Amino acid sequence: MYNKYQTSSEESFLKTIKRLVITGIYFCLLANTSLLAEEVSSTKDLVVNKIISAYGGDKLIGLQSIRIEDKAMHGSGVESFDPNFSEYSIENWDLKIDLLKNRASMEQFSDEVSETYHFRTVTLPNDTVTIDYVNENFYSESGEFYSDFGPRVRTSDTLLAKALSQFDDSAKYLGRRVYAGLDEDVIRFDMPGSSLPITLFASTKTGLINRMQRGNETVTLTYVFGGHRKVNGVSYASYFQFFRNDLLTDAIIDRRVSVNGNFTTDFALDKGITKRAKFIKRGDDFFQKISDDSHLVGQGTNYGVFIDAGEYLITADGLDGLTERLTLYRERTGSTKPLKYLVVTSHWDYMLRSAKEAYELGVNFVISESQKSALENAVGQAIADDRITLIDGEIEIGPVKVYAVDTSVVQNYSVMYVPSIKAIYQAFHYVALYEDEYWIPGNGAGTLKAEIERLELKVDKVISGNSPKIENWQQFSTAIAAYRSRSKCFANRTICSSN
């Protein structure tokens, strides 16, 4: 738990004395010569101390509790409804941390067109759990403070400064830079819960954090802070932006911070919340025969159905692991038939992770016109017309039919229908998660069901690209009805009324 990351009282006392001495030296030097002051300020200890002082010094170090209430814009990014347009939805976040008892409550609510999200991760006396208010159940988390709450902690410059005061032994001063005309000190440190080191860019003049970055060779995560204010002597940024590479995915449009409040009643399960049903087992090398000509194959959270069309094979989606799935299929069936067609269900990046593999395998992509740009981006080159089969409303390819429909989640979604087994293949709209119960989906599943009924397709089975469990149509329909009958907000929790 969080205790292992905190210093003892003796270490904390010695660190406080050390910072007071350094602060005295710093200001004496500053008063005598600006050149010497600049040289001294480039040391790690002075920069760390300057940042901590900017956020309240002893008030930050002695912080007993903090509450951060945010109204945020969350971007759909590459998982948008329209492939040519990225939408933003409104989310409410409420983070409460009791630093004296090393516990927290982190709640998130969003009522979107596609579905309602409402979760809360909370520290209980003997466990840390996440409550899914839509499904009215809970499941256990790791129990490590920064693993469970780190993603939200990192959105607060105040809590980053607090973490720096705790883990400054790992800090390294990287120098000074000028960004947008402002001098910044750059310091890096290791923070539990993050596999990537934390790099802070703090104003040389004020010590306030302007931005934080984490990243590797493929992705840079940038956290931007501004509009700094104070509450009871503790500084905080009133606005925040989060970028994945150059894509803005989250932005705070209203932040309220309070410190040293009493959250005693917040660390408990709500009445009516029960333990989540047993999850289905999702592991490696899953293979299931549906019929002589159709098999479900997958690994982990990625699954694909292979349809034997006589002279060739058909599959859907470019989820991670296509080559491995095809290899497993051939090992289990003995088939050497070529994979000729891959039905691209949507333009989402997640659904195109194996598109390049598929291209190299020589497949023909079955797509809607609006998906072509995303597909070519995933493949990394233009695709010749003879490698593409366009869906104009609907198309029949051997033993399967493909329909382009609009759901509340995505435009021109390609549903693959296999009449011989009365089954549809879809991904991310509905995922069968539990062994003996149904999972309550969002409105996306409801709008998909409406389109299937409009097309008058006879469906007994719902196959998911994210689960090895094939759901029957009745269970699928019951799950959607359960979603529509639920209140938008469990027990009228206050976070819902902020929307």
Instruction: Tell me the Rg in angstroms.
Output: 27 Å
Unreliable stretches, pLDDT < 50, 5 or more residues?
1-41
> What structural category characterises the helix and strand content?
alpha+beta
**Oligomer class:** single chain
What is the second-level CATH architecture of the largest domain? Clam
Distance between the termini: 33 Å
Number of strands: 27
CATH class of the largest domain: Mainly Beta
State the major sheet: 14 strands, mixed
Number of helices: 11
Name the helicity range: 10-25%
Strand order of the largest sheet: 7-8-9-10-11-12-13-1-2-3-4-5-6-14
Give the full name of the CATH homologous superfamily of the largest domain.
Lipoprotein localisation LolA/LolB/LppX
Explain what this protein looks like in three dimensions.
The chain is α+β, with helices and mostly antiparallel strands and 499 residues long. The chain has 2 domains: 274 residues, Lipoprotein localisation LolA/LolB/LppX (outer membrane lipoprotein receptor (LolB), chain A, Clam); 200 residues, Metallo-beta-lactamase, Chain A (4-Layer Sandwich), CATH 3.60.15. The protein is built from 11 helices and 27 strands. The strands form 3 sheets. Strands 7-8-9-10-11-12-13-1-2-3-4-5-6-14 form a 14-stranded mixed beta sheet, with helices on one face. It has a 7-stranded mixed beta sheet with strand order 15-16-17-18-19-20-21, with helices on one face. Helix 3 crosses helix 6. The longest helix is centred in the N-terminal third of the chain and has 24 residues. The radius of gyration is 27 Å and the shape is globular. The N terminus is likely disordered.
